[in-house]
Specification:
The chain is of the alpha/beta class and 406 residues long. The protein is built from seven helices and 28 strands. The protein binds adenosine monophosphate (AMP) and magnesium ion.
């Protein structure tokens, strides 16, 4: 039997054989979750001008000194300043202007009294103020968030919604990002069919392609669905050739274990430099990875749960690295086993499909159902994989490590 290698060894073999793709300019809204390829430096101040953080009255703070509920002060009202308009009057002593959130502060004002502490009198010619404000109160100063020359977004940042907002506020609507890989996928296996027709003896329906396409989409990759390819050398070769011209990476499922009739193996060996690995994990022990021409190819196992776990542990990190991520792996968390988890020693680390309840003080981990590598129901109910090192498992109340799947 072929030697098993550790998960870390297999992951490091895969990850070191892929590189970040080149940069490309994209429209702002296409940038979310992409990695920015060039740093962005501010050319403007944000906020661009001093403005009010509240609806109220722009005043000189000194004019409100001593104002209380019982001994209010009265100021003369000059004008109303809506957001988007420039003030026409200067605030001199004893005067004020009504001002709306976001409107520019008029000259001479150094504070804003919230409207809640005021009322108009004298047909709007005067304003009664019932609270003292200090200098600068309720004013958002120009450049408080950014001034010209500030580094807004360092190169390598994964863009989130707030980054996109920041860029828009600076008038930047096109950005240079690391290209996100387009990933081709096909299933192999003569037992597989797609369609509603009744299954003939020995047949099952292709499910992996649908799970994997959904995972690729979840992770923001473009996909090319090459469908279900029969176990036929010519058909497999033709599809791989197509993927070489249209994709940045290729995923196949099935035909990487020890079975006969696995023509995908024959073809990949002929066309590329492939490593056929037996990884010391369960599920997802068999894995093929290699380069065909320039194309990274992930030969994921055929068992439905294995194909998904293999995607999470090998393909996803590599595709993230190709997308420019510097931390391509999912973080590991600690929780507590809410039940016993039994397993047998077999030299492998087991990844149990579990449901982690994070609303408790410590995350509580319970089985998500069937644990066979062919049993998708357990995977469907899981939000995480719990890591059970080689041995006999663990008892309720013990500490367990897990990674989230979503
Ligand atoms: P293989 O790796 O081709 O030996 O397949 C291992 C197991 O996974 C077999 O029981 C296959 O029938 C099953 N299998 C392979 N490909 C798929 C697929 N695309 N969808 C569902 N099951 C599959
Ligand atoms: Mg097969």
């Amino acid at each position: 039997m072929k030697r098993m290698i550790s998960l870390e060894e297999a992951q490091s073999y895969v990850i070191k054989n892929v590189d970040a793709l080149e940069g490309e300019n994209v429209l702002l809204l296409e940038g979310r979750n992409k990695v920015i390829a060039e740093p962005v430096v501010s050319s403007e101040s944000i906020p661009p001008f001093d403005n009010t953080a509240v609806d109220g009255y722009a005043v000189k703070a000194i004019d409100t000194q001593g104002a209380t509920e019982n001994s209010p002060v009265s100021l003369e009202m000059l004008e109303t300043i809506p957001a988007g308009k420039t003030p026409t009057f200067t605030i001199d002593q004893g005067k004020c202007s009504k001002i709306m959130t976001g409107a520019p502060l008029p000259d001479g004002a150094d504070a804003v009294v919230m409207v809640e502490w005021t009322e108009q009198s004298d047909n709007g010619l005067h304003v009664t103020i019932r609270k003292e404000v200090s200098e600068g109160q309720h004013i958002r100063q120009s450049g408080e968030d950014l001034v010209p020359g500030n580094l807004v977004i360092p190169k390598g940042t994964i863009l989130n919604a707030a980054h996109l907002g920041l860029l828009a506020s600076l008038g930047i609507y096109e950005i240079s990002t690391v290209k996100t890989p387009t990933v081709g996928i096909f299933s192999t296996g003569d037992e597989l069919i797609e369609g509603k027709q009744p299954l003939k003896p020995g047949q099952i329906r292709d499910s992996n392609r649908f799970s994997l396409l959904a995972l690729l989409e979840r992770d923001g990759f473009q996909t090319v669905d090459f469908g279900l390819i029969p176990d036929d050398e010519e058909a497999i070769e033709e599809t791989i050739k197509k993927a070489e011209t249209s994709c940045d990476a290729l995923i196949t499922t099935g035909g990487v274990s020890m079975g006969d009739f696995d023509y995908v193996k024959v073809v990949l060996n002929r066309l590329g430099r492939m490593q056929w690995m037996q990884v010391a994990i369960k599920p997802a022990k068999p894995l093929a990875f290699g380069i065909v021409g320039q194309l990274p190819v992930f030969g994921l196992p055929g068992n439905p749960v294995s194909s998904m776990v293999s995607y999470e542990l090998f393909a996803r990190p590599a595709l993230k690295k190709m997308s420019g991520y510097t931390e391509p792996y999912r973080p590991l968390f600690f929780g507590v086993a809410a039940q016993d988890f039994n397993r047998k020693p077999d030299g492998k680390t087991h990844y149990f499909r579990v449901l982690v309840d994070v609303t408790q003080e410590t995350p509580q981990i319970q089985s998500a159902g069937h644990q066979g590598s062919h049993q998708l129901t357990g995977m469907a109910g899981a939000n995480a994989l719990a890591i059970l090192p080689d041995g006999i498992g663990t008892t309720q109340g013990s500490k367990l490590q897990f990674l989230f799947l979503d």
